Amino acid sequence: MDIPLHYFDEYIGDRLYAALDNPFAHFAAESGSTATFKNVSSLAAAIDLSSTSAAVDSVTRLVGSVPGLSSLGRDSIVRQALSLYGITYVGIFLLYFSVATFSYYAIFDHRMEQHPRFLKNQVRKEIAFSLEAFPMLDLLTLPWFVGDVRGWSMLYDTIEEGPFGKQGGALPWLYMAFSAAFFLWFTDFCIYWVHRWLHIPFLYKRLHKPHHKWIIPTPFASHAFHPVDGYLQSVPYHMACYMFPIHKYMFIGLFSFVNLWSIFIHDSDMLCDHPLEHYINGPAHHTLHHLYFTCNYGQYFTWADKAFSSFRVPAKGDDPLVAVLAGLDQKKREQEKEQATAVVVPPEMKRIDSGLGSEVEPESPSSSSSSTASGHSSANSSDREQSVEEAAGKEGAQRRRRSTRASMAAAVVAPELDTSVTPTRPVRREGLRARK
After folding, report:
1. pLDDT tens, position by position, 175-196
2. Which end of the chain has fewer CB atoms at under 10 Å, N or C?
3. Is 347 left (phi over 0), alpha (psi -120 to 50) or beta?
4. CB 290 within 8 A of CB 218
5. List of long-range contacts for 65-71, beta carbons under 8 Å, 24+ apart
6. Quick check: 35 and 43 in contact, CB under 8 A?
């Protein structure tokens, strides 16, 4: 971590700390106080309690005599701790939001949000939980980074300073490759057991359960855990550089990869039947871990889960997207069934007198609007109205034919009737024929 700290001090830190002077320092300068306080007794002796104003003045001079941050050099452990805390917090903040946001919008299948076990406003809750964990998580990891900067770890700067560096040739580079592979193997083995121990009921309820709140996780769930839980799973990464030599740039790259991998395996993807699923513990394996809790504890590889009987191979039937698609298909079938079994209600009919007999006409558009408002389409309504009009026309024609036959029958019977009787309305045509 001394590499990012060096660039921070070079471009930001020196100017920042120069501006962070003690605002009470001028009180100490005016009084000429140069006292330093090594213990509680000297501090108590410097406070004048003869009066209230004297006590306020003495306390002000004491505070003013405290060195400001501008007096801290680059080698000060206080300044290094403050700088490393800020660098770590800003770094994890930027990495989390940049990579998790990209993965959420570019890789994560948003249909998963319709899964019955996907929580309401889950993404917002995951982000809020992560932001709550960052401050304490960075504080817990700070001693490891301070030790790195102060030379207490086995990190080395150049090839010549590392193993086999003085011999030259290919050996130093081969060791760098070996250190990277050993780092992944060592941390994966340690995290397997840390993760599995966190599932012991006593620890699970107090530390690890908040992370398993996300049954169907999104990339934003990668850092949504209890800060102590996150710290315990990060300890193997910090231990590695204290146990065997690692190049500083190699360690920064590996540490960044760790965080990227943690985000990557939380996208709920379930790619199955590929040749690496028996060797690499990817998103499909970790999705199964969130679904079933007792399998696939590893971080990168599957060998530890296989060796200790906790491996579960991803299968298409385990994919939570299958349940989502089945639910959507069931909902679609129910909607189609409701439409197919809907009762068609014809428009209301009423009878009118046209002079030639009773005819039937369909209800007016204003009164039939209630039936269209019941959920039927306008195309079906127009078809029904047309069929009703045709039926009404046929019925009217039949009634007119019956009326005509009745008139003809009356004309035949009319000569036999008494001429003094006024002919009825149905024999109107016969009367007109008689006048002619």
Report:
1. 999 999 999 999 999 999 999 9
2. C
3. beta
4. no
5. 65/25, 65/28, 65/33, 65/34, 65/35, 65/36, 66/22, 66/24, 67/22, 68/20, 68/21, 68/22, 68/25, 69/17, 69/20, 69/21, 70/17, 70/18, 70/19, 70/20, 70/21
6. no
Give the Cα separation of 301 and 289 in Å (integer).
Answer: 14
CA 371 to chain centre: 44
Torsions phi, psi for 350 (to 5 deg) = -140, 150
How far from 172 is each of 3, 54, 156, 167, 169, CA to CA, in Å? 21, 67, 12, 8, 7
Per-residue tokens: 205: 């309820």
Tokens matching residue 371: 């039936």
Residue 216 to residue 231: CA distance in whole angstroms? 23
* Residues 6 or more apart whose Cβ sits within 8 Å of residue 368: 347, 348, 362, 381, 385
Q: Distance between CA atoms of 395 and 166, rounded to whole angstroms?
A: 112
| Tens digits of residue pLDDT in 317-327 | 888 888 788 87
Model confidence, pTM: 0.68
Calculate the CA dihedral of residues 288, 294, 296, 299 and round it to 10 degrees: 110
CB 277 within 8 A of CB 315: no
Distance CA 34, CA 422 (A): 142
Q: List the structure tokens of 256.
A: 């960044």
